[in-house]
Amino acid sequence: MEPFLDQEQRLLRERVHAYANSHLMVAADESDIDGAARRLVEELGREKFIAHAVPQAFGGARPSVQARDLCVVREELARASALADAMFAMQALGSYPITIAGTEKQKKSYLPAIACGDAIAAFALTEPQAGSDVTALATQAIKRGNEYFLNGVKRFISNAGLARTYVVFALTDPGRPKTGTSAFIVEGDRPGLTLKEKTPLLSPHPIGTIAFEECRVPASNLLGGEGAGLKIALQTLDVLRCTVAAAAAGMARRALEEALRYSQSRRQFGRELSWFQATQFKLAEMATELEASRLLAYQAAWLKDMGKQGLKQKSSMAKLYATEAAQRIVDQALQIHGGMGVVAGTPVERLYRDVRALRIYEGTSEIQKIVIARTLLNEKER
User: Hey, what CATH class is 236-381 in?
Assistant: First the structure.
């Protein structure tokens, strides 16, 4: 990845890699995921990793948020801990709308606490009937005087019940979902915001359903003006998608490392598994797909940081390929481990559970194909 990274990013990779090896290689306590999540955000804040998700003027590490920084941190964290990666990613996802659309006052009020890990962030877009179709939102924000009153339900919200700062997307003009969606900053302790349920997942993660019942939000908490919500959401997802690809590459790297280690130590039929051509072919394919995934992820991030055209398409390509490839790589690593691969608590068993969600969140693989195809067809029309 050297052509895409500057010296600061290379040093950042070394720091995150060392931290992950020292602190994250042991699995988190799955009996208290909320507690583990809080501790991870605090630690990542102290290590100044979350600072890379926020501009320097508001407690961040660089003058502007660099997608390559986010990719570097996510790849190294995901290699060691899916939960650590998820908590870092949510600080970025929950703060980026404020970074790109917030007023100076809003940024000063919310970003510094997110950057240092004092405040947990959340991104509340998905609803029971609005997943891939973000224009199907039902949550409404009705303005009365200098306040908005939010009513509706948000589902599959990471950090539900933990977040101090939510960015919530709601309809201010219910008759025009594409141009009538707005974004709001909602503090977690606001009356009318309630945690309805926690949602157990295949790979433990702090996620759940929240509801808004006449939740009063000051007009000053509106992001970017009425009707700007959908644009803010899509701009945020376009940037964060390439970081999902980097996280997938991190998990795939760990799977390949485990497969190499096991295949060279496990003996069958008088030989190490690595001696057999069937195993060698698996390892070769895994390594090649991993390298292609990383190149796609960092190319997309580089385009964003350099202000080049084509981010939407390249970011979708990166997420599509890297997440699908990671699933295949982890599956092959588990196959190489044989019976040991399905023993609960082993690294490849955890990776097998951890990697699956990446093909779904922030746009399914099918949605990425639609985005890629539309950009190709639009280019042809132009």
Answer: mainly alpha
pLDDT digits (tens, 9 = 90+) for 2-36: 789 999 999 999 999 999 999 998 877 778 999 99
CB 224 within 8 A of CB 145: no
Report yes or no: 317 and 365 within 8 Å, Cβ to Cβ: no
pLDDT tens for 231-251 read 999 999 999 999 999 999 999
| Nearest Cα residue to 81 out of 293, 251, 261 | 251
Burial of 124 per CB tally in 10 Å (0-12, 13-18, 19+)? buried
Residues noted as catalytic: 362
Contact by Cβ (8 Å): 38, 46: no
Query: What's the gap between Cα 368 and its chain centre?
Result: 15
Q: Tell me if residue 220 falls in helix, strand or coil.
A: helix
Q: How far apart are CA 155 and CA 202, in angstroms?
A: 16
Helices (DSSP H) in the chain: which residue ranges? 7-23, 33-46, 67-80, 82-101, 104-115, 229-265, 277-306, 311-337, 347-354, 365-381
CATH of domain 2-119: 1.10.540.10
